Amino acid sequence: MKLKTIKTILSHPLNQNNKLPALMTFFKRGVVIRLHHHPMVYPFLENTSLVVEKGMSSAELQIYTGLYDLYEMLFLTHYLRPGDTFVDVGANVGVYTVLAAGVAGANAVAFEPIPTTFSKLKRNVTYNQLEDRVDLRNLGVGDKAEKLVFTNNLDATNHVISNSQESAGATIQVPVDTLDRLLADKTANFLKIDVEGFEANVINGAPDTLANPNLRVIIMETNGLSDQYEFGQNYLHNKLLDLGFAPYSYDPFKRSLQKLETTGPHDTIYLRDLEFVQERIKSARRIRFRKMDI
C-alpha cells in the first residue's frame, strides 16, 4: 500500500518538479502519525483546512499533492458561485464539500452513508465554520428507498455489497433513498458522484434532478467499478449522453475545455449548455494556490 501511495504521489502533475519535497512530506507524516495519534489540522486551499487522522487516505492525498483531483477540483472552484447548490454524493470526509462551500462560497448537500466517516465529514465542515452552508446527510443514495449493506472498514473505498459480492470485513446496514426525494426542496447546480461503482443506481433514482436545466455539471467516478453492479459504465455513459451531457477535460491554467471521445480513466467531467459553462469559468475569480493565482 505504501509503495502504491508513493507511486501516486510521484506521478501527480503538481509533483513532477517537486518530487523530493513531496516524498519528504510523505515520510515526515509517517513519522508524525506514529508519535502523535490525534487528528491534525493541515492547510488546504485558500483559507480552508482539513482535519486529518491516520487512515484518512483521501484527505492524506491532498496533503501530499496539494490537490489530488487537480483538474476536477479547480474546475469546481472556477465554476461554482455563492448561491449555487453543490450536491456531493459519496462525500467521504468532505474534501469536495469544503472546496465548494469554503472556497467557492456555494451551498452544499453532502451525503455520506458510513457513520464513522460521516463524523469526520462533519468535523471538517465544523472546523471550517461552514455549518450554515452545508446540509449534512448520513444516508446512502440509490434508485429506490431501501436498506443496503455497505463495507465499513475500507475508508474511501467503502461500497455497497451486491448480491453477487462477498465481504470478508466489517459491514453495516444503511438507509438509502433517491436523489429526487432527498433533493425535493432543492435545485442542484453541480452534482459530484463518487460511490465506488454504484453511480448508475444514483442516476437512475434522479430523473427529475437530471431534467432540471440548472444542473449543467456532473463529475463522476468512471474507473470501471460500476461494471460489478447491475448497470455498467457503458450504460451510465450512454444515459448521460442521452440527457444532453458530454464528457470534457479541463485545463485550469488556461481555463479551457476539451471535449472527449470517451470517459476519463478515473473521473470524468460531464457538461451540458457549454456556452454557459465556458462563460462561468472564464469570468470566475482567480484562486490562490501555491503562491499562484489560477
UniProtKB/TrEMBL annotation:
Protein name as it appears in the record: FkbM family methyltransferase
Respond yes or no to whether keyword Signal is given for this record: no
- Identify the InterPro entries for this entry: FkbM_mtfrase (IPR006342), SAM-dependent_MTase (IPR052514), SAM-dependent_MTases_sf (IPR029063)
What the entry lists under SUPFAM superfamilies is as follows: S-adenosyl-L-methionine-dependent methyltransferases
Q: Signal sequence: where?
A: none
* Keyword set, alphabetical order: Methyltransferase, Transferase
Say which domain of life the source belongs to: Bacteria
Q: Where is the Methyltransferase FkbM domain positioned along the sequence?
A: 88-227
The taxonomy runs: Bacteria, Pseudomonadati, Bacteroidota, Cytophagia, Cytophagales
Gene Ontology terms: biological process: methylation
Task: Output the Gene Ontology terms for molecular function.
Answer: methyltransferase activity
Q: Is rRNA-binding among this UniProt entry's keywords?
A: no
